[in-house]
Design a protein that fits this description.
By secondary structure, this protein is of the alpha+beta class. Helices cover about 40% and strands about 20% of the residues. The protein contains ten helices and ten strands. The protein is globular.
Amino acid sequence: KLRRDPRVYVRAVLREDEATAGIGVGLKLKGAAGSFREVDDRPAFTVKADRFDDSGSWHGLRKFHLNNSVQDETYLDEWLASEIAREAGVPATRVAHARVWLNGRDLGLYVLKEGFDRNFLRRHFPSANGDLYDGGFCQDVDAPLEKDTGSARDDRANLQALLDACREPESEARAGRIAQVLDVPAFLSFWAFEEMIGHWDGYALNRNNYRLYFEPGSRKAYFLPHGMDQIFNDPEASVLEPPGAIVAIAVSRNPEWRARYRKRITELLPIFLATEKLHRRIDEVAARLRPVLLAIGPEAARAHADRVRELKERLVSRAKNLKEQAGQPDPKALD
């Protein structure tokens, strides 16, 4: 069935270790242009423990992903980004690792990432009953985004209100309307975090890899980072150039918010300057992965150690660059 319809859930049995009893789950393939692989290759999976049983759960998770990490040979980018995000006050899903077999075929090491579900929303927001939208592939808020959870009403009124606010032509009115439908301080943290980790394939720069949650109490929008498997690749990536997404552009056009964005970069800078602390955390996880990689093969373990060393070097370079950029003036507007 997955050969024929890879994006449609099929029934599967999930077994954890030999001593753990299997549970019935829903399984489908995941990934976009760079990471998708067919089921007979080394596919990435989305697993829903409650797809065919409303009470289904695995270690408290109702939905999680098994990422093949074909674009990240360290297997650490997603984990590292989620750790930094939470330290920066940005809600992010938890990340671990797993060795995966499919029908007895050893697929190797995977990145295990929790899904954006109600359990995740309860941990980070006063209410988990709001509308959660999937940003899809390179879609902005003017697209008919897929709703993952929320009310049965399907008019996308909250999305439209956010879009209309950003497109308000008069600057003062625009700022007022945006502040009514977007948690601006939370967005500034999200935007600064994305830029500082070099998430070129995220929302602010590429209108990609994000979720959008409308918290029902405040009725305001919150952006959530996703797909962070290609971070810190360019240690000199700019955090000052204009963004490319609708909401980020609209926020950046407000001088007060732009100044607060710059201030937020300065406030988050100590996280990145503490490279020794980041290196220790990376070494701890890499040490946990090493026995698994050695069991797969000595060459896999050696290659992974090389990639981890390169990541640590990029972190040092990125910290130095961010410190320099924090003291630079904004780019001059074009005539």
